[in-house]
Amino acid sequence: MSAAGSSNPEYVVARVRARRGKLYGGEEYRKLTRMTPSEIARFMEESTYEAAINALGSRHSGVDLIEYALNKDLAEQFEAILDWSEGRIYDLVVRYLRKFDAWNVKTIIRGIYTDASQEEVEVDLIRAGEFDDRRIRRLLEADSVEAVVEILEDTIYGDALDAALPEYEESGVLVPLENAVDRAFYERLLDNLPGGEPIRQYREFLQAEIDFRNARNALRLARSGAEIDPAEYYIEGGELFSRSDLSRLANNVDELVTYLEESKYGGEIGDALAELRDAESLIAFEHATETALLEYADKLGTIHPTSVTPVISYILAKEREVENIRAIARGKEAGLSDEQIEEELVIQ
After folding, report:
1. Structural domain tally of the chain?
2. Of 90, 224, 231, 319, which residue is least crowded by CB atoms under 10 Å?
3. Which CATH number does the domain housing residue 44 bear?
4. pLDDT digits (tens, 9 = 90+) for 243-281
5. Contact predicate 69/45, CB 8 Å
6. pLDDT tens digit string along 87-140?
7. Are 22 and 48 in contact (CB under 8 A)?
8. How far apart are CA 138 and CA 155, in angstroms?
9. In a domain, 34, yes or no
10. Whose CA is closest to 315, among 133, 62, 95?
11. Is 53 helix (H, G, I), strand (E, B) or coil?
């Protein structure tokens, strides 16, 4: 693992493509939705999750075993990518994997907000970012949001969370804190990217990810009925919205949907947008944006097959596999029907 020296994208992309071919597809998910949690764990043991299931099987069982095995395997997969990477591609992958630090911060804050136990929070953490075990442990032991902000004061999230804390304390909702984390992540992700056509394509993907996140945030706020100006939670770096666009469009869901339909992303998420006009839930739209991002990254990866984009595409696809298996296991534990569980899945 090295951030110095020459880059080796050809080698990293070849290794990643081999792993991409082993990800679960629609047929595997259909089988899993018809299994009990114990059967799901056994199915996983016969695939790429064998090592994680075997390592944890003596301490956990059922859904807990599945959860811990998924997170362990995810972290190990991404650690392997960093071990293979050198130079510029290493730096770009490290930047993107910080998204899991952001995920963990938001998960811990939500846990404090809902009075969840330390064990309940820990099972949802994904240790694939830069935070070491000591910092993760300190965050898990924090007994207040203020303590979390203090622990993170020397990270890229420190200033943003400190600025958002008064608004959280006044409003009593998590939106200011969660958006502060997202903004800090994306600002650093886009900062000082190198030049060249492959990086331009990668930047295009990142801009799409930011556009979709801004759209989801605006729709959530519009549907919530909360008197919150979406412009306050705008994430810089996308192409589709300005701050004033988001503030104006979020007040009218129909106008926002029309704006998205007429954008360059309309072809990717058009079906979900049509459903959104009549639906009460944002689930279909959010799933469609995730699928669109996967397809967008795949498309850009074929344009520059030895750039970082195929690696990011695999990270997204692996993350989605983990989320799908987790949704199936939790759905089974909650007694949901196969049809209800399938509605929670995102299958490319």
Report:
1. 1
2. 224
3. 1.10.132.50
4. 888 888 877 778 888 888 898 888 877 777 777 676 666
5. no
6. 999 999 999 999 999 999 999 999 999 999 999 999 889 988 999 999 999 999
7. yes
8. 14
9. yes
10. 95
11. helix
